[in-house]
Structure formats: C-alpha cells, structure tokens
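Hi,

Apologies if this is the wrong queue. I'm a grad student, and the batch job for Acrosin-binding protein from Rhagologus leucostigma produced an output file that my downstream script rejects. I'm not sure whether the problem is my script or the file. Here is the sequence I used:
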Amino acid sequence: AQQPGTPLSDQEYHQFFKFLRITIQATTACHLRELYGCKNSLVQRLDEYENHGVIPPGPICSELPGNPFFRNFCTFSLYRCLTKKYFLKV
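Support response: The file is valid. Your script probably expects a header line. Output copied below for reference.
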C-alpha cells in the first residue's frame, strides 16, 4: 500500500486518467441528451452504440434495487444522467 500523500504510481495514474476520461465522456453524452432529447440523431446513435446497434424498446429492467423498471431506454438513460450512475446496466 502507498503512503498517504505520496503520488500515484505510473499504473495508478493510467487507471485514474482512464476512469476520468470515461466519466467526462459520460457527462458529455448526458449534456447532449439533456440539451437535445432522445429523438436527436446524435443521441440515438450514442444509444445504439451503447446497445450494440439497437435501442431497446422497453420496458427496461436495471440492476438498481428499489427502482428496477423504466418505461423505455430514454427514461433509463435520463435517470442515469440525473443520478450520475453512468455505468448502471440494464
């Protein structure tokens, strides 16, 4: 274990920035969704990319306890954006 206050190792920095880049990309996708809505062609392409080419029609079941069902993928994605749970899976 590293001493508190010491810099990260090269490998730790790689993991740190990898996570940071992914989070920034997820935040950017959420801003696009909030600005343009789910019917926007760019947002739809992102949704298709996330789901191997097809946007699930719904209802959507998630791993989230207590609120497992969403009426469609758009509602599910908006929920993830609002709660900043970007990597919550269906």
